[in-house]
Amino acid sequence: MIKYLISIIGPTAIGKTNLSIQLARHFKTEIISADSRQFYKEMSIGTAAPTPEELSLATHHFIHHKSIEDDYNVGAFEQDALNKLDELFKNHDIVIMVGGSGLYVDAITKGLDDFPDIDPQVRTELNSKIEKEGLESLQKQLKVLDPMTYETIALDNPHRVIRALEVSIGTGKPFSSFLNKKSTKRPFNTITIGLTAERSVIYNRINQRVDIMMDNGLLEEAKSLQCKQHLNALNTVGYKELFNYLNGDWTLDFAISEIKKNSRRFAKRQLTWFKKNKNCHWFDYNSSLESIIETIENEVIN
């Protein structure tokens, strides 16, 4: 019997969580999260993790299963998620995966890419540069050496920027040229469903979500994590801006406006990444559940 992974992708705040729950209930199955920010149990509000009510409607995996203190990466997630899928497919013909982290989605559906070994001195020099000149200097360097990666990775994540740069510098070839070189054969078929909307709609939804997060206590959540702001998991949109406010560098209004701006930029990078998937079935975020289910069932039948 062929097994199917329904992968739901799209920009932040587009409605992926709601759709995943509706599909899980329809197909009587479970959900795997591929949202790398929602792994951490200390970060609920700022990552728009499913609420307790939403979690009660369908069984979820990889939501709040790690601490921000843990060393967890895409390679570890790939292995954990594949093991979980093996387990779930024993009782289900269809499993839902949802998330906006393109690299983590691709790790499950296609496998991680192989990169050549790089002289450790390259990373040492990049770490020295970021300490002396700041992250922006590395971002500008990446934009010159590899514009495609610059448009798609999380630019506010120094580890991602340094990794892309060290490969580009160490090999003389863009980091992006090593991506998608192979596609590991998985023991399941993937059906990808993408949600999208006009850019103005996406941006309005993001702005509204940030306001709701603030009303729901995002500032208090950031305060509780301020003493750990040096951790990589917290170097992310929604938290780093509020840390600047709490540290006395920004006003609260400016910090909120920066969260909205950086979330919009993040959504743009998500779409750039996901649009590379030529096999995705794209739907407007307002599309009926019935039309999406029909598309999935036609794929399963065929």
Automatic annotation (TrEMBL):
Signal peptide: none annotated. GO terms for molecular function: tRNA dimethylallyltransferase activity. ATP binds at G10, P11, T12, A13, I14, G15, K16, T17. Its EC number is 2.5.1.75. Its cofactor is Mg(2+). InterPro entries: Dimethylallyltransferase (IPR039657), IPT (IPR018022), P-loop_NTPase (IPR027417). It comes from the Bacteria. The record marks S101, R123 as: Interaction with substrate tRNA. It is an enzyme of class 2 (transferase). Substrate binds at T12, A13, I14, G15, K16, T17. Residues 35-38 are annotated as: Interaction with substrate tRNA. It catalyses: adenosine(37) in tRNA + dimethylallyl diphosphate = N(6)-dimethylallyladenosine(37) in tRNA + diphosphate. SUPFAM superfamilies: P-loop containing nucleoside triphosphate hydrolases. Keywords: ATP-binding, Magnesium, Nucleotide-binding, Transferase, tRNA processing. PANTHER family: TRNA DIMETHYLALLYLTRANSFERASE. Monomer. Belongs to the IPP transferase family. HAMAP family: IPP_trans. NCBIfam families: miaA. Catalyzes the transfer of a dimethylallyl group onto the adenine at position 37 in tRNAs that read codons beginning with uridine, leading to the formation of N6-(dimethylallyl)adenosine (i(6)A). This is tRNA dimethylallyltransferase. It comes from Geojedonia litorea. The gene is miaA.
